[in-house]
Design brief:
Helices cover about 55% and strands about 15% of the residues. The protein has a three-stranded antiparallel β-sheet with strand order 1-3-2. By secondary structure, it is an alpha+beta fold. The protein has a single domain, classed as Arc Repressor Mutant, subunit A, CATH 1.10.10.
Amino acid sequence: MNIPKYIDEREVARITGFALSTLRNNRFKGEGISYVKVGRSVRYNLEDVVEFMEAHRVQTSMHLSQNLAGQV
């Protein structure tokens, strides 16, 4: 059984570079990274944070050309 690791909003802010106010505004608007709320405690699944960031990855032309060069 793989037990998920939950982190608080300060750790999410550190990992993502988002301001705490951005995370809080996103929660209020129902946007951004999925979270768990138990009472007043807010936690984020670390895997969800990583998946959110990866889903917003932008491939640059330099990165694409390096990938193509490695496949030749």
